Fold this protein.
Amino acid sequence: MKKSNWGFWGFIAPSLLAFILVQLIPTITGIYYSFTDWDGIGKSKTFIGLRNYSEAFTTDSKFLHAFIFTFAFTLCAVILVNLIGFLLALLVTMKFKGSNLLRGIFFMPNLIGGILLGFTWQFIFVQIFSALGKKLGISWLLGWLSNTETGFVGLLIVVTWQLSGYMMLIYIAQLQNIPNSILEAAQIDGANVFHRLRHIILPLVAPAFTIGVFLTISNAFKLFDQNVALTNGGPANGTQMLALNIYNTAFFESRFGYAQSKAVIFMVVVAGISLFQLKIGKSKEVEL
Amino acid sequence: MKYKDRIKGLMILMGVIVAIAWVAPVFILLNSSFKSLKEIYISILAFPKEIVFSNYTQAFEKLDFVQSFTNSIMITVISTLIIILFSSMTAWVLVRNKSKKSTIIFMLFASALLVPFQCVMLPLVDLMSHLNLMNRFGIVIMYLGFGSSMSVVLFHGFIKNIPLELEEAAMIDGCNIFQTYFHIVLPLLKPIMVTVSIINAMWIWNDFLLPQLVINKTGWQTLPLKTYLFFGQFAKRWDLGTAALIIGMIPIIVFYIASQKYVVKGVTDGAIK
Amino acid sequence: MRRILSLILCGMLMMSLLSGCGQSSTNAKNEGASDLESVTVDIFQNKSEVAQQLEAAAKTYMEANPGVVINIETVQGNDYNTALKAKMLVNDAVDIMALGANDIVNNYKDYLEDLSDQPWLANVSDGLLEDAKLEGKVVGLPVNIEGYGIAYNKAIFSAAGIDASKLTSYDAIDQAFSDLQQKIDSGALKAEFPQLESVFEYAAKESWVMGLHTLNIPMANELGSAKAALEADEIELKYSNEFKDLLTLLTQYTSSKEDLKLLLAVDYSTQIGGGLAIERVAAVQQGNWIGPEVKSISPEVYENLDFLPLPLKGVKEDSIAVGVPAYWCVNKNADEATKKAAKDFMNWLYQSDEGKSIVVNQLGYIPAFKNYDGVEITDPLSASIQRYVREGKTMPWVFGGFPSGYEGQSASDIQAYIGGETTWDECIQALKDDWKALKK
């Protein structure tokens, strides 16, 4: 097909220009800024070599803590979100009256933004939990979000509540691809529910797990809004995740260059995870 | 058979219990939003003794709801529309024009998916303030820039599978490139358009950080940003806070109920592709 | 065909919307200099308890001055500094901001308009402009005078037979709290105050309560002024033992005394709305700013509020801490018309008769000006502070000179001690180390 150059560039220009302006230039300049002592918008940037990076890797205990916290959080979220998402998918694909309503209910939190979710659960954890705990004399319901542990579990609950329904949809799509004939044949052969689950459903849903796992990783690792609204990193920065740590370094400590160097480290990790995902996805395709 | 039915019944019962737990947070909010602050502090678990509706009128006013809702709608709709239009145009010529430059440009768009927002946030704001784009017009451009990566990739995947014949026929009939695109190609893209617009609209509607950095000025703020500021101001006035959260959820829930089919399709397709 | 048409229409609509959007945003970005009809002053302030009243005041002003639009936005406490920094990214998003001494000298020095020529300058009470100076020039208007101590409910104390006027030393207060707790536990006050469960509540979750206000008590006695704090590269914390006693007093009569970890969950709203205002507790460490919130929940409790001193044992036992919480500064990068309108509004609010009455009666402020004769303070806590000021029983606020970021650090150091994670010596060492690190 022949097209004039004019047509080609004309069609591409609007999104390409916006893309260059908004993503490409900032990414490149951002890498440069990470080697400077930049301390605010419009301020001068002096090249200081690797000093930001060496600080991030050696002396910044808050950054290290945020890193560990984020990794641990992501790991737990991946397991919990996908397990619950899969169970929900199994549940609502059993044909019964109202299964569509349940599907709708489980997915709904996913549409509500992180800021609203965070404040909603802050209310539940702090006010409702403590009132319940006092009334029923259950001590573990008291003092939520006042230490790192309950902050961690709290964030986990919020993210599970939000993402499980999303994963459920992905698993439903995959479950519906399983031909009924296979299941029926198995049933006639005398396979009970658990046998069918283990030997037929799980292997056939496996590709969707790859998608589910990496979508959860990407969401959990970059979590920001929920973190801000639920705990804002507190108490004592104990629940500060990477994205929030970068944000606070810039806007609370006024160290833009240093925040940028952390952001570059963050990018390397995120890109690494995503490339790993692509690779796994590719090899899975071959298997299928 | 009986055993199977019993298991099924048990599962359904469990499902209903889980579903109740799932909506409980929203109902708790709703319940508290009709109480006075004093009642929230004294008997938070009970039903409201008398319905206090003033929380809603006050929260509505404090959220500057009409203004922030309009801002949110305008920004979301306009950004989504131009993302669909421009990324589908880009994806189309990239697919149809098989050349090295097409591959490079496509890879450029795709590789940006690896870059987290935190990494471009500070230099972007620096650049935009020099260009005087720190306003509602600028944020639409930024959404186009950020949204185009994912959208071009999705459109690209879809257009690859559209046969060429129709377009060739149109060209032979004398249609120019614009006519071919708008008359022939665009209508064929409808299914993927739904997906792309749902994904982008959901993200843009709920986005908090970019509006906070770019349009954090009285009169410009979007609903999530205003909600955040609301909680900053009323430091846990939970009588108003619960009402504000319910108000913020209503548009989303209404939209979801009205277009559940498309939302579910859009979200699933977007994830799997 | 129809589908194609609708798509094209859709596109056209979109284009028109887009251009409409562009236009409206340029409109909103007031080109006020040329067009006096639409000067907009954006105020970003940090006192949520007066946000509503301040908006009402702005409305009054706008009715009298149709050419001016005053927008007021409020973010409370620790979040304010982060929010302000993010906001300053947007060109002229803020015209008047509320800053402390450290912000003025360090973080925002490139933004501050010289206010030395303003008419209100001569009327400011003595000594209150020291922290508002940048290179010798006054750049901020003192918003008000505030004080904090132990705010208590007179009705509960007198029902328990405690004479609060004698509570002027650490030991006397400690004894009174202990007596009151016994009466509560024995059920003697149950009939009159059914919600009452403990003497005290301490908002240990709020970094400003611990990391600024409580820490200020030993620091004020060590350093003497915010200026000294700004200049100190290191701190000695020579009253660390007395500071520990103070923390003991503030924590051991709370409802979380059995397990102090739980105290770290207590936030401002639990302390005030869910504590003092519903008579669940009888006393808190807070300042006169709690008045409006208590009043909105229970006017009776509000009328019964008064201050006890916040005692540093053996050093200064009968005083409360009084200071200027923030200064209103004008963004010098705003255009001339906006800056003029901003200054005019500040002048009107603090110096006109109408404004003075709003400042005292609506905002509940204790004015930082000498020329407020004839305006009577009615707020019980503010009146109490005025008494302490008259008797000279005050300590300064020095936390305005704490380095940026110290509030969060110091609060988490003290929280770690209260939560039982560190010993007192470790806590003191951490407070010193963090100071030194942030001063670098």
Notes: The CA atoms of residues 214 and 277 of chain A lie 7 Å apart. Chain A has eleven helices and no strands. Residues 61-93 of chain A form the longest helix (33 residues).
